[in-house]
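User: Structure please.
Assistant: Input sequence and predicted structure:
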Amino acid sequence: MRILKFWKPYDVLTQFTDTEGRATLADYIGVPNVYAAGRLDRDSEGLLILTDDARLKTHLTEPRFAHPRTYWAQVERIPDEAALQKLRNGVLLNDGMTRPAQAELLPADPDLPERPVPIRFRKNVPTAWLQLTLTEGRNRQVRRMTAAVGHPTLRLVRWAVGSITLVGLQVGEWRDLTEQEQRDLLRTTGLLPKRR
């Protein structure tokens, strides 16, 4: 089994081919027979897990195998406790209620490299960074959730999938998971029994 972690840059498609000549995973990863286990939108950045194992890919992508995914979202204005509580309780979107999430205001801006295309800047509108941990992965879910509580997302970075994080990677870099990281990920997804 091969499992990679990759820091997907902004404006890169989560696929290996594109007929329109846009940047894809093939521009960064030359490992044969691995596929993205999940997706990140073209305008989102951060952690992507790739694997050659079909069972792991299924457990990472199908909603019934709920597992935590942690995102850092830079949002317009500073959310108050009421907005955070709405995110924690679940938000009604056009495709139904979201599962409860963990949501907190980060005390300081995360140490991230500048994005090649800067976020929209408005002098009179402050921004804040949220940490959100979800156990489902609907299309553009974080962006839709923050907008629903009045704080549109300006920049979105997936920081972690379970205990696997971006630590040790630079934008556009990948590496194989260590044996311990593989075991941890398999436990997170239910493919290995949890430690007692």
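Residues 1-65+166-196 form a domain with the Alpha-Beta Plaits fold (CATH 3.30.70.580).
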